[in-house]
Specification:
Length: 258
Amino acid sequence: MNVLGEIEIHVEGRVGAQKLTPALVDIDEIRTILGEAGDLLFPTEKRSQRPIISYEISEGSVRHRFRTLMQTVIGFGAVIAQVGTEGHINFLHERTAAAVESLQRIAREKDYVVTLRANQQSLRIDRTTHYERDERIWVEAEFYLYGELTNAGGKNNPNIHLDTKEYGTLRIAVDKDYLKQGEKNLLYKKFGVRVAGRQNLKTFEMDSNSLRFIELLEQDTAYSQSYLDGLLKRAAPAWAEVADADAWLNELRGGIHA
């Protein structure tokens, strides 16, 4: 039997003149906390791949308690200890960092004190803390993503959902006019999608919450040697003066991140 441990998100504050209690917490705020907990603990796993996270809400002021595998609790305790020591979240996985930023916004907007606890480690977030990513290490970039288009639409914020093997399901902002002019059903078909978004200069990580649609690409999974040979022939003149193409390309990509 797997050994379980507990992680707590403890929220203290007031609602008007009353001390915060579970009875005064709106369902939207609970939904936000629940969503952030999943990204805090398992930022890289799909829902079908991660272990079960059980949940309990209790008094004092409001304690959101999550039980999951002890090894996850230990790992998360080490993460929040490092955040407290370094005083920033730039090193965190994008989804974990976004979850901490969401809790920081709640603390600032509602004057709450939010404390994360795991494995005898704790991290306090309040209106005086600044746990947001440094914008200077994020730059605009373009990405090519491949997967199955599973949803398209949205009344106020139109988007498409692309189910990818590498990143799971990604939500990509798209112009409503593009969806209107579509001449055929695109759902449940495989595509390549060219998108714009933010990329971390240090980790080369993509910010999946910033993706904006540029172009839809028909994806042909059939391998064609003749097509590949044609592309190589067309590209050859541009590489004629490069002595070591592999070394040059590796340097351009950033060495170890090639």
